[in-house]
Design a protein that fits this description.
Distance between the termini: 55 Å
Strand content: 5-15%
Order of helices and strands: EEEEHHHHHHHHEEEEEEEEHEEEEHHHH
Oligomer: single chain
Helix content: 40-55%
Shape: globular
Structural class: alpha+beta
Number of strands: 16
Strand order of the largest sheet: 13-14-15-16
Length: 408
């Protein structure tokens, strides 16, 4: 239920959205609301996702991502839309089984932005909707159009949930109709907390969400939350929003080539080696953008930056996915520390130290240190912390060396 200090406003460009009718201070709760429908990311082990008998019957007819992945690629789409709909397979089934209930009516009130969706992404939505509608096998249930509308509403309005506050990444998805009117900014003044998802008596995930002020919010000011990870560089955020939410972000941070003074999207100029190339404002209608050096005027095409970005993220993902071995934890930690150190050093040859890849690699190195510092066997407890600390120190030294090269 919305707090008394919020009201719905309408704007020609921003549409219907929440605005403050009184001032809020940082940390103050603006809204609390139950999750209308939520589910674990799919595919998920059955003991984690706990589908009901009705949901299992549908999953047996079409298990989701494994089958859809092989077919959806022939439809000419993919990317963020495909990835999100595949992960939301169980969420969509759970919502569709609410057909005819008050919750279903609430879900159908959500915007789906179908008119803004490109042809390729619309084809993916249609393909998923066709697969789900057939799997329902219920003539009295939702129509194909209603299934497609629900999937569009998921793309536009879904939130990521965490089973516990310490989860490093969302492990579930939720629709919360009461929160659908918060507009986006990459410099938000409010934050969404969805870390209370838990299993109820029927096996489904349930919980509540809250929205708190991050900064002082004045009377009449729009209340803005971030739809994407704000640590990411501008080119990544804007592409993600354009693909998944069907709008081009024009917030104050995205309008600034320096990314709000963070330079998180800047790349080192390979021509003069003394200036930063800044991303020129990107538009989906204009095609690929470019990076321009303020010192010498040299340019780098966006495709080069994206190729580097993809390669570095693949390396980081591989390190994060490497399984922790039960034996030899000290050596494993040292090797992981060296790998993270090399990744950071290689990244800083191209990007600014505030780039998400650098930050995420350093955070991962610290987590590796913490993992090795608390081994399962007491016999390794004495040796592991020192070795893990040395590995973390090597990461920091590599970053310092790279930063020194940047200063030169």
């Amino acid at each position: 239920m919305a707090a008394a200090g919020l009201a719905v406003r309408s704007h020609e460009v921003e549409g219907r959205h929440y605005a403050a009718v009184r001032g809020f201070v940082p940390g103050e709760v603006l809204l609390t609301a139950p999750l209308d429908v939520c589910a674990a990311l799919w595919p998920s082990p059955l003991h984690v996702s706990r589908p009901t008998a009705a949901e299992l019957a549908i999953l047996r007819r079409n298990p989701g991502v494994q089958l859809v992945r092989s077919n959806a690629r022939t439809e000419g789409g993919g990317g963020e839309v495909f990835t999100l709909l595949a992960a939301a397979w169980l969420l969509a089934i759970r919502a569709l089984l609410m057909h005819g209930t008050p919750t279903w009516a609430r879900l159908m009130s959500l915007d789906d932005n179908a008119r803004l969706r490109g042809a390729a992404d619309a084809a993916v939505v249609h393909h998923f909707a066709t697969q789900l509608h057939a799997a329902l096998d219920d003539e009295s249930g939702p129509t194909l159009g209603e299934v497609a509308r629900l999937l569009g509403a998921i793309l536009v309005n879904v939130f990521g949930t965490r089973s516990t506050p310490r989860e490093p990444a969302p492990d579930g998805l939720a629709l919360v109709v009461a929160a659908s009117l918060f507009n986006h900014s990459c410099e938000p003044n409010a934050i969404v907390d969805l870390d209370g998802a838990r299993e109820d008596g029927g096996g489904a995930l349930s919980g509540a969400m809250s929205v708190r002020a991050l900064a002082p919010i004045a009377q009449g000011e729009p209340v803005l939350v971030a739809y994407v990870d704000t640590i990411e560089p501008r080119y990544h955020r804007r592409r993600q929003l354009a693909k998944s939410k069907n709008f081009e972000c024009a917030c104050a941070r995205c309008a600034d080539p320096t990314d709000g003074g963070r330079f998180a999207s800047a790349v080192r100029c390979r021509a003069c080696a003394r200036g930063w190339q800044l991303e020129q404002l990107w538009s989906s209608a204009a095609g690929d953008g470019e990076w321009l050096c303020a010192a010498c005027g040299a340019r780098t095409p966006e495709r080069d930056v994206r190729a580097w970005d993809a390669a570095m993220r693949a390396r980081l993902d591989a390190l994060l996915a490497a399984p922790a071995k039960s034996s030899g934890a000290v050596d494993d930690s040292a090797r992981a520390g060296e790998a993270y150190a090399q990744l950071v050093a290689d990244a800083l040859e191209w990007c600014h130290p505030n780039h998400a890849i650098v930050v995420q690699a350093l955070v991962a190195a610290v987590r590796e240190h913490a993992r090795a510092a608390a081994p399962a066997e007491a016999a390794a407890a004495d040796a592991a912390p020192a070795s893990a600390l040395a590995a973390a120190e090597r990461v920091i030294r590599a970053a310092e060396r790279a930063l020194g090269a940047l200063e030169r």
